[in-house]
Amino acid sequence: MLMGCDHSSLVIDQLCDEAVEEDAAVACFYFDFAARHEQSPANMLGSLLRQLVTGLEGIPEAVARGFRNQKKVIGGRGLQVSAILEMFQAIPTTKRTFICVDALDECAPKHRMVILESLGQIVQGSRNIRIFVTGRSHIRSEVERKLDGEAAFILVEPTEDGIISYLREKLRDDTTPEVMSSTLEANIMESIPAISSETYVRTGARVELRKDTSG
Amino acid sequence: MRNCRNLLIISESLSVCVTNFGSSGWKFSSWVQGIAIDPAFPQPQITSLADLELINTFALNDIQSSGNRKMSQTFSNNQNSFNVSNTFNYTVPDDESKILAWLSPLEPLVRHRDIGAQRVDSIGAWVLETSEFRRWHGGSRDGSGHATLFCHGNPGVGKSYIR
């Protein structure tokens, strides 16, 4: 997504503000390539459910029952995706409910299939649930296929204004201003927007300004 | 023993189980699962079903009134020549937090705060103004429109400078 900006975070902030005002529910999940082993479909979907349950007055009976039943197994038992989806169906969704999933492309491909199918089932279960997903464009066809007509798409490209604002902000926060000259600053402000406007920059990306101080 | 079974799971969240009740006198902690008994306090001697009922009443009242907070409760029963008198402290486990942890061990909201702190305000707000976003967002009120919105972009040249 646009440099220096995190659209999912922007959207989540927006939704969270609304949630406070008009009593909607918001659950978020951020995929991270480095955490792809622990971010299994069960952990991810369980995390969303956990956030929604946390926002309720109490633990729904279907969830409490699932917990009690697994305790009967010695040592407890990990949650299965199917059990999580059943619990999703059982929780009340009279409120508007937003589920935000960031950087889906960073999820392992085999997990991604399960997750997309599960998200599809979740939205079919309640008309009050909306899902917001971000990711690189190469997984668009997967999303299209798995959600089959249920998804709308926005292609995010950097705008020149956005890049300039971002660069200004970064230059203002420069921690080593002594090596910055007005010529260098002018070059940065001119050349980076020119390059970047031809480029799509991925979700949540941020630019690190690097100054060559050796010569 | 039949009467004992009537006491089974008086409180589901406590998993109070009295099937172990026997004449030999067993430990309080062995049947009140999930209650952390403060070992500094003497445990009540339980010699009858009436004693169990009384303890259960205390436990239930405490759960209903104050959740998982630590508390003291005076336990006293001189009825029917069963002489039980003790003060014990216990912490009722926070079953809710156990259930939430069971749902998922991951803590995603921490990440959101981190990303939010990096964001430059006002950039990218155009996404919120697109017709796709508005339809997706507004449709959640009446169930119309696409239920899922996928925002996508490509990685670009100069990726090593961007992460």
Overview of the structural elements:
The complex is a heterodimer of chains A (215) and B (163). Chain A is mainly alpha-helical. Chain A has helices spanning 7-22, 41-54, 61-71, 81-90, 109-125, 140-147, 160-172, 182-196, and strands at 25-30, 97-102, 129-136, 151-155. Chain A has two domains: 7-147, 3-Layer(aba) Sandwich (Rossmann fold); 160-196, no CATH class. Helix content of chain A is 48%, strand content 12%. With 163 residues, chain B is an alpha+beta fold. Chain B has two domains: 2-97, no CATH class; 106-146, no CATH class. Chain B is built from seven helices and four strands. A three-stranded antiparallel sheet of chain B has the order 1-3-2, with helices on one face. In chain B, strand 2 and strand 3 (84-91) form a beta hairpin. Residues 1-43, 62-93 and 156-163 of chain B have low confidence and may be disordered. Classes of the chains: A mainly alpha (215), B alpha+beta (163). Chains A and B meet through helix 1, strand 1, helix 2, helix 3 and strand 2 of A and helix 4, helix 5, helix 6, helix 7 and strand 4 of B.
Quick recap:
The complex is a heterodimer of chains A (215) and B (163). Chain A has 215 residues and is mostly helical. Chain A has helices spanning 7-22, 41-54, 61-71, 81-90, 109-125, 140-147, 160-172, 182-196, and strands spanning 25-30, 97-102, 129-136, 151-155.
